[in-house]
């Protein structure tokens, strides 16, 4: 490989992440014309077209995508090494990018974030919340937080929260006009408040009892993207909601919500911190993992 190609590959990765030449130029602090020249030179030297360009967008070709899949871990290792060198005497410092669901941020991270930043004042923590599963390597993140059941096998995973149980609930007023469901199949006759993920998919309710699993594609006139909003709608009598039980425990205890099909709501894997296996782990990431690791 020619020495010039290393910098050109870094430019390619920046363009793919920014999805534009101008965005990559801003990120790298160079002129857009230099970005275009580097990509053209790389494509000419390889004899391959790596990016599809239109007046509105830039996207990798199939060959470009395959190259970037191989390239991303290598660039991640280089970035980790450079960050490691910049951290004095292995002291946690520098930028740390973490992707997580909003629930993980609200329940596990934000309540302890001030303490973490007091302990590690030289870390610049950049948190992104998104319900979609993020490829941390492709997205340029140091780590992510997602439910354990959704993690890829090639990720290192560290438990960050307890096991989670779902709860199917509705307001007492809802049951004045609707029978209490006794079996998951009864849900098909109810008005259910559905949830849409950031990916666009609508969640199908996953229930289990004595090893028997049932997935119910519930129906209802209301679709929301946030558990807090779903809980509020259920409180107002809009229908049955399926949310994490800790979100509605006080409402159930006070009688504001009624819980049903409890024996079909079994615990499942909670949140994990996940990150790619690297030969050198940045002290900043190690500090984050150790601080938010669940130890009980």
What features would you describe in this structure?
With 296 residues, this protein is α/β, with parallel strands linked by helices. It folds into three domains: 3-68, Arc Repressor Mutant, subunit A; 87-161 and 270-292, 3-Layer(aba) Sandwich (D-Maltodextrin-Binding Protein, domain 2), CATH 3.40.190.10; 166-264, D-Maltodextrin-Binding Protein, domain 2, CATH 3.40.190.290. 38% of the residues lie in helices and 22% in strands. The protein is built from eight helices and 14 strands. Helix 5 links the parallel strand 3 and strand 4. Helix 1 (3-18) crosses helix 2 (21-28) and helix 1 (3-18) packs across helix 4. The model has no long low-confidence stretch (mean pLDDT 87).
What is the topology?
Blueprint: H1 3-18, H2 21-28, H3 32-46, E1 51-53, E2 58-60, H4 62-86, E3 94-100, H5 102-119, E4 123-129, E5 143-147, E6 155-159, E7 166-170, E8 193-195, E9 205-209, E10 212-216, E11 222-224, H6 227-235, E12 241-244, H7 245-254, E13 258-260, E14 271-276, H8 283-292
Parallel strand pairs: 3-4, 3-5, 8-11
Antiparallel strand pairs: 1-2, 5-14, 6-14, 7-12, 7-13, 9-10
Helix pairs in contact: 1-2, 1-3, 1-4, 2-3
């Amino acid at each position: 490989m020619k020495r010039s190609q290393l910098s050109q590959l870094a430019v390619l990765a920046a363009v793919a992440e920014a999805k534009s030449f101008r965005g990559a130029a801003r990120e790298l602090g160079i002129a857009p014309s230099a970005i275009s020249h580097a990509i053209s030179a790389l494509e000419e030297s390889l004899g391959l077209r790596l990016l599809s360009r239109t007046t509105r967008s830039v996207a990798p070709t199939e060959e470009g995508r395959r190259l970037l899949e191989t390239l991303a871990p290598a660039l991640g290792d280089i970035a980790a090494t450079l960050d490691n060198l910049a951290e004095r005497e292995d002291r946690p410092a520098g930028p740390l990018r973490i992707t997580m669901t909003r629930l993980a941020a609200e329940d596990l991270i934000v309540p302890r974030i001030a303490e973490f930043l007091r302990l590690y004042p030289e870390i610049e923590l950049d948190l992104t919340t998104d319900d979609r599963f993020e490829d941390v390597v492709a997205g340029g993140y140091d780590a992510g937080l997602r439910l354990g059941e959704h993690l890829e096998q090639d990720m290192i995973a560290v438990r960050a929260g307890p096991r989670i149980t779902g709860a199917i609930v509705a307001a007492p007023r809802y049951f004045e006009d609707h029978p209490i469901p006794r079996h998951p199949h009864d849900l098909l006759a109810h008005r259910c408040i559905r949830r849409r993920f950031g990916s666009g998919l609508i969640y199908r309710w996953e229930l289990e009892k004595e090893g028997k699993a049932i997935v119910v594609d519930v129906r209802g006139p209301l679709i929301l993207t946030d558990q807090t909003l779903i809980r509020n709608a259920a409180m107002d009598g809009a229908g049955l909601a399926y949310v994490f039980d800790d979100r509605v425990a006080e409402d159930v205890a006070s009688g504001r919500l009624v819980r049903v099909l409890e024996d079909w709501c079994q615990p499942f894997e909670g949140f994990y911190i996940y990150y790619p296996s690297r030969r050198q782990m940045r002290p900043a990431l190690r500090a984050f993992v150790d601080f938010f690791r669940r130890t009980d």
